[in-house]
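Recap for those who missed Tuesday's class. We walked through two folding examples back to back. For each one, the amino acid string is listed first and its predicted structure tokens come directly after. Nothing is annotated here on purpose, so try labeling regions yourself before you check the end of the notes.
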Amino acid sequence: LKRSSFRRFWAQMPEMSWFPGAEFASQDDLITPAITAALSPIAEMESAWDMPKLSKRLRQYFSNGAQGLDFHGQSLQDLVNQYADNVFGTVFQALRDRPWINQADFLVVLDAGV
């Protein structure tokens, strides 16, 4: 998806109030609306955490994914691969017991994080 698609999606956010911080998130925050979109299809299957907590945790995982990356002397492809490895390693470690984990599509969230 293009960034303009995220901005259109963002305009609908007041109607989607189940994730925390929506009213405080910046217009440049692409991760929050992407997480909302990714969680919508699986929201009914999550029983351990409520949607605000799950959304908050995923936002932390995707926001912290670039920590420790060395941005000098590496190709963009290598950096994206390392970021994805960091994020999905954390996501699958934290949420491995969830029945919906293999059904969730986090591609749009990964795109927003990059």
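Example two. Treat it independently of the first, because the proteins are unrelated.
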Amino acid sequence: RVLRDPIAGPSWRVQFDAEALLGQLRGHILEAVQHPHANHVVKQMLDVLPSEYVAFVAEELLGSAVWASRHKFACRAVLRLVQHSAAGGWAGASAREVIS
């Protein structure tokens, strides 16, 4: 709950907190999506933050997207990426990896 609160509101402080949180997660997405609690943080980030903030999630899952789509926790992040890929852009490569 504590990790999800910084990315839920509209103020500049929340934006700063979200950027700090993203900095902590960068390079650790594969670990986070496997964790029973941290995967919810990744899922929430993909739901509420602008794509320019979270494009790195798709990049870090590239090459592991098929595995992640079968994992009991990581599949949540992959599902969000597939949903975002309908609009094209940054999530498309990971979505294409899973679909093909």
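Answers for example two:
The radius of gyration is 13 Å.
The chain has a mean pLDDT of 79.
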